[in-house]
Automatic annotation (TrEMBL):
The chain crosses the membrane at residues 375-395, 415-432, 438-459, 466-486, 510-528, 535-553, 559-576, 583-604, 644-664, 676-694, 700-723. Keywords: Membrane, Signal, Transmembrane, Transmembrane helix. This is Alkaline phosphatase-like protein. It comes from the Bacteria. The lineage of its organism: Bacteria, Bacillati, Bacillota, Clostridia, Peptostreptococcales. Residues 1-25 form the signal peptide. It comes from Clostridioides difficile.
Length: 725
């Protein structure tokens, strides 16, 4: 009986295994292959000059712009490495990256250094890049995750081409596309990175890609591999060689290169089959584009008949993806996932006017990026200098002539209000869809003046006047967060997708604005409108959910700091005594809110910053917490030395200290006449302190929140002291 059972089970297992093998084999035969073509240092507009590609995109294809940021800087090699790692990666210097085709001597060198068997192409100095990434990288990315996943799943990869140059008769090798295709030990199964160029004295550095040979080898690689990476090389060489050319010779070489690429792409498009996927990308922008803030590189996906633009849950923005997504996207063609990779696969958004839409978006992005620092530095300067001038006037008020005192302080109060008017103006300006730097700048000025004049005509009381600005600000923020954060994404004071620190949700600048404007609005409504206190709880929840939840605002720092600030304000207006037990309860409440948001993120699969942080802790261990907060502290220390926002923070602290020391009577009067407003100041300051600790741009968030404390505080000081004497 036992033998029969064993025999039956053995037969069942054999049948099951055979069925599984058949299904897997069937899957291999029907899935397509992937070809990734790199035209490095090329813009989307230059790609569209290539006839075969332009015609292909007229009928099908999804296009996008790719953030190229790496770990510890942005350059070609870091962008390639980040594509392969699926996370921001750091690598060794250019001269310490040494990809070579297999040979007996090279294999011995590689195997002696790594202890691993050599493959078709190997980075003989891979340990330098691994150590550089481990010792100095901030993000814990694993180099070669893409190639390793392909290898682990029995898929073959090949790399063809290079970006080598010849200077002073010496060959300088550049095979950085291999950083994308390699496995974790710097190996690629096969390819040709050595003998793919030809001598051509009419081209940059006297060499060019041998396209006849490349076409033959691509077709051969297509038969024997699942993923083929192709480095065209000439576009990179042309960009590097440009300083040696005049306008005419540059255009002549450019035309020749584009004609060669056109012939190559025609062959590729006729070779690929229905299920295949072709990616055409530029790992890094041209030198001129980079200098002119045009720092997003093009990427194209050709698969099937669809037409539109690319996006991903990394950016949640139409037309924008990142280099972190490339490796994940390639693996997704084979239904493979790698937990080390934090990028996300592409989302395909159908759109017939994809080229026009993307070019318009890029123009706006570049315009905002080019004027962002100038406008924000100007705004910050006006804010903190107005505080200093106002405080000097208050301290020396007795020396101001009575004939000019009222006028002087009126002007100062109105100047102070710029600090809370302009964040509102920055939010409204994107509605006008301005595209050029001049139009955006003029739009901000006109909208600021319009909002200010409307409020001044309608409302005379200073606090109610400021309520108009803060109330409108927080209402617009809530609505915007609920409908995809369009205004936040196109906002001069918000995040910049070229920098790539954040792409969606509520930015760090507006995290502080949300805290400060909301609490001030609550305080004034309670003071003048006598709204029920329970309504503050409801409003706080709405703001917290929209500005901090993973599916909307998606700001972890905002979740923590808003939770503390709002809860503290609610406790204060209910006259609850704040002791150690209440502080512990505040901490528990924060943990609970974060837990709820993590659960929402996991259930909905929104892949927000918070959800990804929790996943990193799960896969990499508790050390990820230390690494993350170390990065936040390092960033804040850097901002303290370089950011203009620190001037607001330091000036605000100075204002409070001066008022407490020299104007103690004012503080007592403020507590007596405006008790709820004073409690609002305490809650907002607590929010500032918390966001300073938990945010990687805590100085920025704290500074913007501080504006909504200091502006009304100085205004009330003028009204209660200077103008009453």
């Amino acid at each position: 009986m036992r033998k029969k059972i064993i025999s039956f089970l053995a037969t069942f297992i054999i049948i099951l295994t055979s069925a599984s093998q058949y299904s897997f084999a069937d899957d291999i035969s029907t899935r397509g292959k992937v070809i990734f073509i790199d035209m490095n240092r090329t813009s989307m507009s230059n790609m569209l000059r290539i006839k075969s590609l332009r015609e292909e995109l007229d009928n099908r294809g999804y296009i996008g712009l790719m953030n190229i940021r790496g770990d510890k800087g942005s350059d070609d090699r870091r962008s390639y490495a980040s594509m392969g790692a699926g996370g921001r990666a750091n690598v060794a210097n250019e001269e310490d990256i040494n990809f070579e085709s297999s040979s007996k001597d090279r294999n011995i060198v590689f195997e002696s250094a790594t202890g691993k068997s050599a493959k078709g192409i190997n980075n003989l100095t891979i340990n330098k890049s691994i150590n550089e990434n481990l010792n100095f990288g901030e993000y814990g990315s694993v180099l070669g995750s893409l190639g390793q996943s392909l290898s682990d799943n029995g898929l073959k990869a090949s790399v063809l081409g290079n970006s080598d140059i010849i200077e002073n008769g010496q060959l300088i090798k550049n095979r950085n596309l291999c950083l994308t295709a390699m496995d974790e030990y710097g190996r690629i199964p096969n390819g040709n990175v050595d003998t793919i160029n030809k001598k051509d004295l009419s081209m940059p550095y006297g060499i060019s890609t041998d396209y006849d040979k490349l076409i033959v080898e691509t077709k051969e690689a297509y038969k024997n591999n699942d993923v083929i990476f192709v480095e065209l090389g000439d576009t990179y060489r042309l960009d590097l060689y440009k300083p040696n050319l005049n306008e005419k010779t540059y255009e002549s070489m450019k035309d020749s290169i584009e004609k060669n690429i056109d012939i190559y792409l025609k062959n590729i498009f006729s070779m690929v089959e229905e299920n295949d996927t072709v990616y055409i990308a530029s790992a890094f922008p041209s030198d001129l584009d980079y200098k002119n803030k045009r720092r997003l590189s093009p990427i194209i996906k050709l698969n099937g008949e669809g037409k539109g633009i690319l996006s991903s849950s990394t950016t949640r923005r139409e037309g924008i993806v990142t280099n972190l997504d490339v490796g994940v996207e390639i693996l997704d063609n084979f239904n493979i996932k790698n937990q080390n990779m934090v990028g996300r696969k592409y989302e395909l958004i159908n759109r017939d006017d994809n080229k026009e839409f993307l070019m318009d978006e890029y123009q706006k992005i570049v315009s905002i990026s080019s004027i962002r620092s100038t406008i924000l530095n100007g705004f910050v300067s006006i804010v903190f200098l107005s505080w200093i001038v106002a405080m000097i006037a208050i301290l020396f008020r007795k020396h101001i002539s009575k004939n000019y005192k009222e006028t002087t302080f009126f002007i100062l109060k109105e100047l102070l209000k710029i600090g809370i008017v302009m964040p509102l103006s920055f939010m409204i300006t994107p509605i006008m869809n301005f595209k050029t730097p001049l139009a955006i700048s003029l739009g901000i000025i006109i909208i600021t003046l319009t909002i200010y004049l409307i409020s001044k005509v309608l409302i005379k009381n200073d606090l109610k006047n400021m309520l108009f600005f803060t109330g409108l600000t927080i209402v617009i923020m809530v609505i915007d967060a609920g409908f995809g954060s369009y205004l936040m994404k196109s906002n001069v004071m918000s995040y910049d997708c070229i920098i790539g620190a954040r792409y969606y949700g509520v930015g760090n600048e507006y995290q502080g604005v949300a805290i400060g404007s909301a609490i001030f609005t609550f305080a004034i409504l309670l003071t003048y409108k006598n709204i029920p206190k329970w309504s503050i709880i409801v409003f706080s929840l709405v703001i917290l959910i929209t500005s901090a939840s993973p599916i909307m605002g998606a700001n972890v720092g905002s979740a923590i700091s808003e939770c503390v600030a709002f809860l503290l304000f609610i406790l204060l207006i209910y006259n609850v005594k704040i002791d150690f037990k209440k502080i512990v309860l505040l901490g528990i409440a924060v943990v609970f809110v974060l837990g709820v948001f993590v659960a929402i993120d996991m259930i909905l699969g929104s892949n927000s910053h918070l959800g990804m942080f929790v996943k990193e802790i799960y896969f990499n261990g508790p050390g990820e917490i230390i690494q993350t907060f170390s990065r936040k502290i390092e960033m804040n220390l850097k901002l303290a030395q370089t950011s203009a926002w620190v001037n607001i923070l330091l000036t605000g602290i100075g204002v409070i200290l001066v008022l407490m020391i020299n104007q103690i009577r004012y503080f007592k009067q403020l507590m007596d006449e405006y008790p709820i407003v004073f409690k609002g100041f305490i809650a907002s300051i607590a929010g500032c302190l918390v966001t300073l600790l938990v945010n990687d741009s805590g100085i920025v968030s704290s500074a913007t929140a501080f504006i909504y404390v200091i502006v009304p505080m100085i205004t009330l000081s003028i009204n209660l002291t200077a103008l009453k004497e």
